[in-house]
Structures are given as structure tokens and as C-alpha cells.
Design goal:
- The chain is α+β, with helices and mostly antiparallel strands and 238 residues long.
- It has one domain: tRNA-splicing ligase RtcB.
- Helix content is 30%, strand content 25%.
- It is built from five helices and nine strands, in the order ββααββββββαααβ.
- The strands form three sheets. Strands 2-1-9-7-6 form a five-stranded antiparallel β-sheet, covered by helices on one side. Strands 3-4 form a two-stranded antiparallel ribbon. It has a two-stranded antiparallel ribbon with strand order 5-8.
- α1 packs antiparallel against α2.
- The chain is globular and about 55 Å long.
Length: 238
């Protein structure tokens, strides 16, 4: 339920439209099918865990996997672009007398993905799980919870992190724990000032279930610089 559309204001009262989505269930289905194939290529008793089954580069299985993975990541990128275009059309109709806005900046970045990159003089495959590309000068998005802040960043290109940074605040407790610990009243209190769902169905997304985004940003000050600090005004979970 952490996919969302948000309207935010930065510290200079500029309006930002932000959304979070990916390949959705298609990516999950592709991954599960290739994991099942990988498991047939190994004696599972020889692996520390069956889910560590792998493909060898250069084999047909590897090429098939990479082809499908690349397709799913391209789909996710286009999915976000289509969603944002539709959001802009609605925004124009409601607030700009139908005239098209010209965004000052557009950022569309992957998280939870694989890329072939050059690091320390070698071509390698980088898996960023809960992370985004933060190469020097590249813009990225680091969202907080729906009651906190979000950040637009520029990467510093730190080689020790393989040009990576976090893609969000990150959870400090599971969804199940959050549902047990917090109430609807807690959700209303923590999201005061934000127009969003405040019912029991989204308690697992309560700000208290996430890490302090300010601390997260301080912890990666050697990886990124902050280009804009955003505060949610409207958040639509879906």
C-alpha cells in the first residue's frame, strides 16, 4: 500500500507533484518465474538457501532473465510517466485554466532494480534494493512517510556506495507490528495537516512505523545533497 500520489510544497512554497509506483505485480510474476527456473539448475542441498539459486552469465537462462528484467524496468519507468502525465492534466484543469504547466524539473528514478554499470574499472551488475542511483549530478527522490517530509536530491557520486543512496525513510517496524501498535487516533494525530486517508485500512502506513527521515538524510550527507525539501499537503494511497 506504499504506492502513492502526493501534492507537496517546498520551503519556498513551490508546488511539487510526486508519485511512487513501479512495475506492480508484473515484476513480481516475472521474478517468481525466473527464480523457479534457477532452482531447477542447482542441487538445492548445496545452496545455503534455495532462494540463492542463480543464473550464470552467458547462458540462455541468464539472457532470458535479463531480457524480461529490462522489459519490466522499462514498463515501470513508462508507468510512472503515464501516471504523471494524467496527474498534470488534472492539475492543469483544476488550477491553471487548462493551460499546460511547464515543470521546472522532472525526476523519474528507479528503485529496487538492477543495472549494468562501471565501478572501480569493471563492468558489474548493481542491484539497488531500497536504493536509487546517486551518481554525481543525478536528481533523485527520497520520500518520507505521508506525515513527514520528502526530498529531491542530487547525487554526489560516492564510489564507496557504488553511487547509491536510500530511496526512502525505510520502515522501523513491520506492517503487522504497526497495525497492532497504533490506532486510528494515532494516525489522525500523526498526519494532521495532510489531506489523506485516516482509516484503519492504512494504519500500516502510519508515520510512526517509519524511520525519522531527517536522521536518514543526515546519515547519507556524504552520498547526496538536498535540492528541495518537500512537505505533503495531499496524499492518495493506492
Amino acid at each position: 500500500m506504499n504506492h502513492f500520489i502526493e501534492i507537496c510544497l517546498d520551503t519556498e512554497d513551490n508546488v511539487w507533484l510526486m508519485l511512487h509506483s513501479g512495475s506492480r505485480n508484473i515484476g513480481k510474476e516475472i521474478a517468481e518465474r525466473h527464480i523457479a527456473t534457477a532452482k531447477t539448475l542447482h542441487r538445492l542441498s548445496e545452496l545455503p538457501d534455495p532462494n540463492l539459486a542463480y543464473f550464470i552469465q552467458g547462458t540462455k537462462e541468464f539472457r532470458d532473465y535479463w531480457n524480461d528484467l529490462d522489459w519490466a524496468q522499462s514498463y515501470a519507468m513508462m508507468n510512472r510517466q503515464v501516471m504523471m502525465n494524467r496527474l498534470l492534466k488534472v492539475f492543469n484543469r483544476m488550477f491553471n485554466k487548462g493551460k499546460a504547466f511547464r515543470p521546472a524539473i522532472e525526476v523519474n528514478c528507479h528503485h529496487n532494480y538492477v543495472a549494468e554499470e562501471l565501478h572501480f574499472g569493471e563492468r558489474v551488475f548493481i542491484t539497488r534494493k531500497g536504493a536509487i542511483n546517486a551518481e554525481e549530478g543525478r536528481y533523485g527522490i527520497i520520500p518520507g512517510s505521508m506525515g513527514a517530509k520528502s526530498f529531491i536530491i542530487k547525487g554526489l557520486g560516492n564510489p564507496q556506495s557504488y553511487n547509491s543512496c536510500s530511496h526512502g525513510a525505510g520502515r522501523k517496524m513491520s506492517r503487522t507490528q504497526a497495525k497492532k501498535r497504533f490506532s486510528r487516533e494515532d494516525l489522525e494525530r500523526m498526519t494532521r495537516g495532510v489531506e489523506c486517508r485516516k482509516d484503519a485500512g492504512v494504519i500500516d502506513e502510519i508515520p510512526g512505523a517509519y524511520k525519522d527521515i531527517d536522521q536518514v538524510m543526515r546519515n547519507q550527507s556524504d552520498l547526496v545533497e538536498i535540492a528541495a525539501e518537500l512537505k505533503q499537503v495531499v496524499c492518495v494511497k493506492g
